[in-house]
From TrEMBL:
PROSITE patterns, per the entry: HTH_MERR_2 (PS50937)
Keywords assigned: Coiled coil, DNA-binding, Repressor, Transcription, Transcription regulation
Domain HTH merR-type: 1-40, 118-186
Organism classification: Bacteria, Bacillati, Actinomycetota, Actinomycetes, Micrococcales
Name of the featured protein: MerR family transcriptional regulator
Pfam families in UniProt: MerR_1
Coiled-coil stretches: 74-108
Domain of life: Bacteria
Annotated organism of origin: Microbacterium aurugineum
Length: 236
């Protein structure tokens, strides 16, 4: 295939195909007698793998990953894909945990919180899969409001735990500190969690789309890795 034909088959411009080859997303193309690039089935498979990977991870991470996958063994490629799925699963778990936190906070709004159920900063950080420094930063930004003991030790009650869950979920979804602060202010002012629930539900839907795209990308990567073996067998 010519550069233009390959681009048309996958939905990229001629210049995009050249750029992706230069970045190592595509294996280097052979040159014909006239000096023009000539692409084969493995180039198309690599380009389709990148397109799906970009939908799952974003273009920049996909451009960094594809050169590694092209030269990887089947075992190494499978491990990288597994880790990507694990990251998505962990993020999905955090979002669902935030939704559960909102539900619990709504149900227990009028209940007295047992101080024995309060969490120390290390416990909450571990539960959310973040660093303690992140919780301290959120506190400085006014997003999370822990209690302070006489010894100035932080203690996270029901409200602070819910705040931290929401912040963690929104941060993982790409929301900046100012946007999260506005959302939390609205929740506190109107005692409503509807907007946060909508945002988190949309985040779950986006994660599902990314997971499906990653499944498609994994199939293309598999085809890319086994195609040279098939071609050698045909040539033999």
């Amino acid at each position: 295939m010519t550069t233009a034909l390959l681009g048309r088959r996958v939905g990229y411009s001629t210049q995009q195909v050249r750029d992706l080859e230069r970045l190592g997303v595509l294996p280097a193309a052979a040159r014909g007698p006239n000096g023009y690039r000539r692409y084969g089935p493995h180039h198309e498979t690599a380009l389709r793998a990148y397109r799906a990977m970009a939908a799952a991870l974003g273009p920049v991470p996909a451009r960094r990953l594809m050169p590694e996958l092209i030269d990887a063994s089947m075992e190494d490629a499978a491990e990288r894909i597994d880790l990507l799925h694990a990251d998505l699963a962990e993020e999905r778990s955090r979002v669902r945990e935030a939704l559960r936190g909102l539900e619990v906070a709504r149900e227990e709004a009028d209940d007295d919180f047992d101080e024995d159920d309060a969490m120390a900063i290390g416990e909450l950080a571990q539960a959310l899969g973040i660093r303690s420094s992140a919780l301290r930063h959120w506190e400085r930004e006014g997003l999370v409001h822990p209690l302070r003991s006489a010894a100035s030790a932080r203690s996270y009650g029901s409200t602070a735990i819910t705040e931290a869950r929401v912040v963690a979920a929104l941060r993982s979804g790409g929301y900046g500190i100012p946007a999260i602060a506005r959302i939390l202010d609205q929740v506190r002012a109107h005692d409503r969690t509807d907007e946060v629930e909508v945002i988190l539900a949309e985040r779950l839907a986006a994660l599902t789309r990314r997971s499906v795209a990653l499944l498609a990308a994994a199939g293309h990567v598999h085809d890319l890795l086994v195609l040279p073996v098939r071609l050698r067998r045909l040539e033999a």
